[in-house]
Amino acid sequence: MTVKKIRFASAAVNFYFDAGMGALRSIADPKKTVLITDEHVYEAHRSRFRGWEIIVIPAGEASKVQATVDHIIQQLLGLGATRETVLAGVGGGVVTDITGYVASIYMRGISFGFIPTTVLALVDASIGGKNGIDVGPFKNMVGTIRQPLFILHDPAFLKTLPPAEWSNGFAEIIKHACIGDAPMFRKLEAGSLQGYMKGKKDLELLIRRNALLKAKVVQGDEWETGSRRLLNFGHTLGHAIENSYGLMHGSAVAVGMAFACHLSKKETGFRHEARVKALLEQYGLPTAFSFDAGKVMEVLQKDKKRAGSAIRFVLLEKIGRGVLSALSLSTLEEEIACWPS
Amino acid sequence: MTVKKIRFASAAVNFYFDAGMGALRSIADPKKTVLITDEHVYEAHRSRFRGWEIIVIPAGEASKVQATVDHIIQQLLGLGATRETVLAGVGGGVVTDITGYVASIYMRGISFGFIPTTVLALVDASIGGKNGIDVGPFKNMVGTIRQPLFILHDPAFLKTLPPAEWSNGFAEIIKHACIGDAPMFRKLEAGSLQGYMKGKKDLELLIRRNALLKAKVVQGDEWETGSRRLLNFGHTLGHAIENSYGLMHGSAVAVGMAFACHLSKKETGFRHEARVKALLEQYGLPTAFSFDAGKVMEVLQKDKKRAGSAIRFVLLEKIGRGVLSALSLSTLEEEIACWPS
């Protein structure tokens, strides 16, 4: 186990890399801690939850809604949770998002931590303090930014991760490579999903590299007024199609990245659209999707990144360098209408 | 109009004392601002809202629930509100609490300000950044602490305030006097509700004195880990009976203060229970209430101020000096069972 304390502007977070869930007892008092997990994780790892108070929610993005928040609050009241209670979210991005959100509003804020169980949550969702729930087709429309006390990595959870979830997580890894880590991009080109699924040490190092890359971006701009926005690469179109078409987050973001590369070609002279698309496909991710352009524009109008008649869009200048660009909604509308053909 | 900038640890708040709602145009851009108010305020002051986007919610504590939050979020989405939108709550404590809460979670946090229209909101609810909603009988069980950009006082709103609302606000004024301002306690003893209702200048000075007293307490302890807890004087029993019996907040807190004075007599040797009760009655407030002790204890078990088997309770040592005391739930149970007889 390696412990690393990362200081953000609002609070410090302890990362426990390559740890085991057993270590949780030394971090959080079982008498004051409530674990939140989903049905899939609970069914696959029942014995790991023994001795802890636990709230189980249905698995999947459909749970990331107010009704689940209401349910958890009722359970916490039933368990007699006080301001001293610590919530620990054990699961993927849905569980970590909803745990962080409930902890931010229950009794005006209690402490919380995460044990991410998917690649996506390990490299992305658990880091940076953003939490939230969806409102209809609008992703993360409601939420807060608040840092967890701790993030504990237990690689044992990945053993039961379905293959589609692996690709899902690699979408965010490829995103990190595109916006800020060209050497990692080349490493990924030389590797394969199967290789990482089997190579325990390589995987652990890749996860840590990505977790620290994201943490560093957040450190520089916790409240997302500047550089943190680069992490939205692929997420503007991605979010607009994800809930409307029931796509996995990684697939939606992969399509979004392919579209952003296409735009980058025109806007910044980016020359490696084909390489990015090839890498996405190498890791089992889609690079095109047939959607209703009108419907997508309707969702984009409500995007959190909109400012007046423009939207802050992340483009690539080259592999490893993302840039922010204010695109007018009308330009975006034209481009979306005739893409990918 | 007097402007005073108060710096809290997390943010600075501009107070506009003795202003008019017309000044709002110089503080907030009508194109980017949405006003939130309740039906009563809107009906009584319709012309003041002309030219502003507005969301009207039903009046009363029953609105301080998740369903109202959902409604406002849907309206904001419909209005195309972005991260640059500013919410301005125009109303009493329910409106300011719900406005602050929605602003804290919509798109992970947008800016907001208040125009408090009741004595209670002017001297208490609008100040300090606490917001929240009720969950069943549990007051403010869900919420955040986040400071508004501005608080604008327009005395014209008080002209339409019903008499019961005046007493409601004076409960918090008397609370402030009890815990930290003995000269104000004596001033209140020498005055009357009718006097303040008529004497515009006296009232304005009293409101400002209370707003600044509360702001000062919050400045010293924004996250309520110490001295801010004194503001809970009367609120522990008060909250436990308020929603269960449908009492007005001020009435419930007045009963809570009377009970806390009774406890103080035993615990700190406080000698002025009778004076506090007389002052409460002088301002039209109750000092006893017949409730089901078992039911009240059930709610107290879930109080946010509980820590293990004790509850942080505010007592008085003398008039103008509140103190924190950890009372065991069992002591509290005995005392509640045989009070007020």
Question: What can you see in these coordinates?
Answer:
The structure is a homodimer of 341-residue chains. The first copy, chain A, is of the alpha/beta class and 341 residues long. Helix content of chain A is 46%, strand content 19%. Chain A contains 14 helices and twelve strands. In chain A, the strands form three sheets. A seven-stranded mixed β-sheet of chain A has the order 1-2-9-6-5-3-4. In chain A, strand 5, helix 4 and strand 6 form a beta-alpha-beta unit. In chain A, helix 5 (119-125) runs parallel beside helix 9 (200-220). The radius of gyration of chain A is 19 Å and the shape is globular. Chain A starts with a strand and ends with a helix. Chain A binds chain B through residues 66, 70, 73-74, 77, 80, 82-84, 104-109, 130, 132, 135, 138, 140-145, 301-302, 304, 306-308, and chain B through 66, 70, 73-74, 77, 80, 82-84, 104-109, 130, 132, 135, 138, 140-145, 301-302, 304-308.
Primary descriptors:
globular; alpha/beta; 341 residues; homodimer; three-stranded antiparallel beta sheet
Give a quick rundown of the structure:
Two copies of one chain form a homodimer. By secondary structure, chain A is α/β, with parallel strands linked by helices.
